[in-house]
Structures are given as structure tokens and as C-alpha cells.
Amino acid sequence: MLTVPEMGLQGLYIGSSPERSPVPSPPGSPRTQESCGIAPLTPSQSPKPEARAPQQASFSVVVAIDFGTTSSGYAFSFASDPEAIHMMRKWEGGDPGVAHQKTPTCLLLTPEGAFHSFGYTARDYYHDLDPEEARDWLYFEKFKMKIHSATDLTLKTQLEAVNGKTMPALEVFAHALRFFREHALQELREQSPSLPEKDTVRWVLTVPAIWKQPAKQFMREAAYLAGLVSRENAEQLLIALEPEAASVYCRKLRLHQLLDLSGRAPGGGRLGERRSIDSSFRQAREQLRRYRHSRTFLVESGVGELWAEMQAGDRYVVADCGGGTVDLTVHQLEQPHGTLKELYKASGGPYGAVGVDLAFEQLLCCIFGEDFITTFKRQRPAAWVDLTIAFEARKRTAGPHRAGALNISLPFSFIDFYRKQRGHNVETALRRSSVNFVKWSSQGMLRMSCEAMNELFQPTVSGIIQHIEALLARPEVQGVKLLFLVGGFAESAVLQHAVQAALGARGLRVVVPHDVGLTILKGAVLFGQAPGVVRVRRSPLTYGVGVLNRFVPGRHPPEKLLVRDGRSWCTDVFERFVAAEQSVALGEEVRRSYCPARPGQRRVLINLYCCATEDARFITDPGVRKCGALSLELEPADCGQDAAGAPPGRREIRAAMQFGDTEIKVTAVDVSTNRSVRASIDFLSN
């Protein structure tokens, strides 16, 4: 039998077949005192995935934080009345004519790096700073997208402030989360003075469904640093997927809370243009009432009026169009309890509202020169923020049928800085540029035609529509009846019109909740009260580990042959835990057993691999990459002889992994003592 020390193993053995053993480390791989391999166990049949109902701790209140790219906010509800969602206080400041139950995702730190303010307060204070003084302050905005776009995200990843200075991203996110924690707890204390301070709040953080495991873990680490929860009470924090949260909330909506962009009544009639869905579901609802004897069934099962007409098995798409990303998920409604089943893995891309902002910046580069815009952003950062605010206000008024030009104010600092840098004024720059749909107003504004504004939307809007059409073409998604358009960007009349025009011909009903910008936040609160509402999810990737199998000539490549102690092994075999696009139920477990290799060993470390396909055979195949590590921490008492007198190197540690939740979870137990073993999966120290 192979032994770990003489092989220098850092892989693992899965106790499912006598033909498998751990993968040896590559020659010259680093080893530390704490890193370890796993000795082979007595072969036994690997248990099949087992579904186990998740155990939920009880909390007095759920507080959800919707941490968005452009705007953020929190809401909460008490366990005594879970569906009564309390929105956070309206924020001071804000832009005229813009509802501000959320606040901009803007963070301001002092020149020394200390927290100063967040949201409107941060934005306005930064705006009022002297231009020279502002260059020393650290102002961060729309920084959530950096986590999505980072290909090598770690706990040491840096974020760049508007002035070009950098700071650890973890600290930036922790500052923001700490701000929301303090505000939420203060409001809770005022509303419920008798609420105990400790262990009474379940926190929920929203993230895009397309985020990978490292990004989700990063948000959890930031929450730990911010003091939302402790590592010892990790279950107090839930990660909610944004389109899932929206889906959960949409289940609760009544007909008058929805807007059908098609103008169709459910029975096939016509409604007035852009009117709310009327109550023509009466016949279906009456049948449901007779069946259940009481209309209270709808409330008790968590199903709103729109869902009363839907039958078990009906399918719908949620398109979460936010500031940074578009996030698509497909759910099937399950009766009688109104639970949800994911039919296809979450998809989407970087097609959020910031794409329109970037298009405007590119337009400015065409007019004034890319070098000037870069210099202006660095040397006059506060004035650049002013310009983006002015554009945001006009962007919100854009519409497909709007008549008349839109005026965008240029800060005096921009006009003056350009004249000093270039030796001529901005009006001259506009005349000399090849951009003929933007003019100069005598009031000191850029005058942009509506067609020009709509053109800025087109690349982003087209990307969203293409993603939706590609999703609807999937065989798993056939039979979809509804498309819910949610998220802050879904408020845009330009986007609504384009989606309806492109998808209306398919017979798909495009529905927008009236409080579309708060749908995810409210849904996250409901998700925190009942995390089991999404019963089945699809794994986005294939996950597994590397093992040694008995070498079979003709089946295994010769270069994978390893001969030790007279036995032939095939190295680098990819042992799969879960396959990409596989349906995994909430609470379903994949169990494997491991054994410490040495007496006194304190830590078992096992590399995890992933890929986008389900047919990978080896961890060296194209597309397969190391994505994390499973760590089992052994207590000193666990390292001696067990209760049955077995040798210390033969102790069995049984790990149970869950892939059906919003995060990959692991628990472990020492089989000989039945004591829990501290287990974790690290996706950030790859």
C-alpha cells in the first residue's frame, strides 16, 4: 500500500474504490509543517449524495443589505411579522426628482485612510472640497464591479480611488458594510428598544448570481471584518443571489403592483398602453379558492395573485439589470408550497448601467481627447464626479419617444482646465471634432440630441437582449411564460422599450414590478426569513479533486503511469463531486472520507479543481484549474489513538459538502469520536 509520507502526498483519497489513492505532489512542490496528505483508508463504497433538510437557527430580525454597483441600501423585517418589510430611512441629500430610498455606492476616506462618510454624504462632501485638497482624499465609487472583473481575486486585491491612490479592496468593502451595520442597528434599537443586542440579527448580503465562489467568499470576509458576524457564528450571514431574491419577492406581488409592458391582459385581451395588469384572473382565482376553500392559502403558501393563475411546473425568467451586471435566472414554480427550482445555471455578463456611463466617457474622449480626459480625472477628481452626476440625471430622463435635446452641464473647472491645457475653449473643440450630434449651448452646456443619448444605450441594451435571447434558445428553458425585468437599470424606459420590442413577438410577457429598484432588496429580506424557498439549484461548474486510480493499459495515457512498490497507478485523475449544470437540491450532501497521514497531524489540506464542462478526465485537462482548498483542522485530542484502539494514522474524517446552496459549504466529523471537525473551503488563497 502507498503511504503518504514516502510519496510526498498533498492530495486526497476518496474512500469509494480499492483502485484509488491520493495524488502525489509534483516534484519540488513546497511543503510546510502544517500542509499534509491523507493516507488511504480501507476501501468502502462511497455513499451517494444524500439530501438532508438544512437546519436554520432562529433570529429575531432579518436585515438585508443590497450592495449595488451604483446604489445600495438596507431593509429589515421581524420574525414576528416576516412579510412586513421596513425600508431604511430615506437618505439625506440626493438629486432633485430622484427617489432615494437607496444611497449611492460612494465611499470617502480621509487622506490618512480613515472612514469619513458613505453615500450622498460622501459624494456631496467630496464635491465641496477644494480641488487641490480633494486630490489627497480617497473617493471610491462603483467599486463593486472590480470584484466581478478581477481574475485573480485575493484578500490582498487593491482598489484604486478616483485620485489614483490604492487601498486593499477588503478594507474598502468592510468600511461600507460597517456603515450599513451601524445605521441598521441604530434604527432597530429605535424601533424595538427591547431587542437583545447579541445573536438576534440574521444578515443577508446580495451578490450577482454569476459571481464565482471567490467573490462570494470575499464578501463574507468583508462582512467578518466589518463586524456583521463572527466566524464562529457564520450561519448568521446569508449570501443571497440577486435574481433569486427578486424572484422570491415577485412571488408575493399582487396584480396592481406589476406593469405588463405588452399591454396584454392575461386572458388575451388588450389593456391600455403600459397599464398595470388588471384583475381578469378572477375565474382562475375563484377555482383556486374553491379548491383550497379559503383565499388565505395564497398568503400562507407565499403565492401572490399573479401566481394564482400559474400551474405547477410553469417557468419564468428573471432578468436582473443592475448597475454593473445583467444577471439571468430561470425558475420553475413548484406547488403546493410555492418553492422554486432553478432550471438552468445563472448566466449574464457586464451589461449594467455603467456601460452607458462608459459610452459617455468614450464620447468625451472623442471630442476632447483621451489624454485630456485622463488628466482631468486625475487632477480634478471632484469635478469629474460632478460631471458624472450631471450625466446621470439626464440619463434617467432618456426615453425612446422623447422629443427635444438634453443639456448636460459641464463644470466650470472642466471648461477652465481645458482652456489652460489646450489653449482654446470647449466650443472650438466641439466644432473641430467629428462628433456632429453634440453641440455647445450658450448656457455652458453640452446639448445632446435624443438620438445621440439613445445611441449611448445601444451597446449595453443589445448585450442584455442577446443574453436573454441566447438563454431562451436553451432546451432547458422551453415553455417560459414570463420575463420579470428587475434591478435599477430596469427603471430605464429605453431598456424597457427595447426588451419588449425584441421579445414581445415571441409571445413572452415582459413584466416590471412597480418598485423595480427595490425588488432585490425586499426579496433579500424574504429570503433571509425563509432560505429554503429555492429548493433546487444548478451547479455552474464541475467541482472535484485529483486522485490516483489503478492504471489500466489502453485506457489511461502512458504519461500518467506511476509505479510504486510494484503497483501501477494513473495519476491526476479528476474525481468529480458535482457536474456543471447538474441539479442539486438544497441540503443534498456529497460525502467523502479522509485520513491523517501522520501521528500528531493537525491539518488536512486538499486541493479542489473545477471546470466548465462535465467530461474532464484529468486535472491536467484544458479548462481544469485549481480553484480552492478544503481544510480540515484537527484538535490535539484527535491526534492520538482513537476509542477503538486504531493507529493514529488511520483515523477517519468524514466530510460532507453541499453544492445546492448559494455558497459551497462543508462540514466534517471524526468518525471514531463522533466529534465535529473544523472544516472550511478557501477559494481566495489559490
From TrEMBL:
The protein's name in its UniProt record: Heat shock protein family A (Hsp70) member 12B
Sorted alphabetically, which Gene3D superfamilies does this protein's record hold? 3.30.420.40, Actin, Chain A, domain 4 (3.90.640.10)
This protein's encoding gene: HSPA12B
Query: What InterPro entries does the record point to?
Result: ATPase_NBD
The coiled-coil segments of this chain are none
Query: What are the start and end residues of every segment in region (Disordered)?
Result: 1-53
